[in-house]
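Write out this protein's structure.
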Amino acid sequence: KDLFCNLLLYNNTIMMNAFIRITALLLASHNAANGFHIVLAGGTGKVGRELSSKLVEDGHDVTILCRNAFLAAAPSKVSSDFGWLGQSFLEKYPGIKLRDWDGGDLLDIVGQDWVGWQDDTLSKADCVVNLCGGFTQQREMATERIVRESLRCNPTALQITVAPKDEELRLISNVAVEPKMKRLKLCEDMVSQNCVNYETMRLQANRLEEECDNIKEVIYARLS
């Protein structure tokens, strides 16, 4: 009896995962003609700037989740503690929208309009790219937040998590490298073990344009 129940549960899980994948492909095919909606979490850094502009130039809509949309859109950079894209950049690429979010840590919120970011952004997303940087527990919390809310709002969306390669991490950080590597792996596992439609990517920091093209190619290949 236990074996039969386990087999039944296993088969139901396989069928559900297959259904989610097929649904994702059908939705992606429908949206491809009108452009995709892509969400970039932590997209106010160098990678986010480069990737978002490339995606918008290709005719897609991009929403960037940031801790403070007002500061990110300011004419000049106000604080080094928060990401910044700038007013002129956003005027050049009107297809890029900013949205406050909690980033997994309510104590770190400065933006005033973060409530409801999940339903506003994730529910419409064809793809969610996690570009959240840093190697502290904040990275884990942000990843957990994205995964949990995506599963609630939009389980078929493609989830892409981006991190530096291990050898790159050793070059850019000579303190507590092993714990940082474990944290990156933990975030990747969080995505791979909970999402059926996902990619985990490791990039080289000194090849910004090339690596952003790689992310873009993965998005198009998986959604086409």
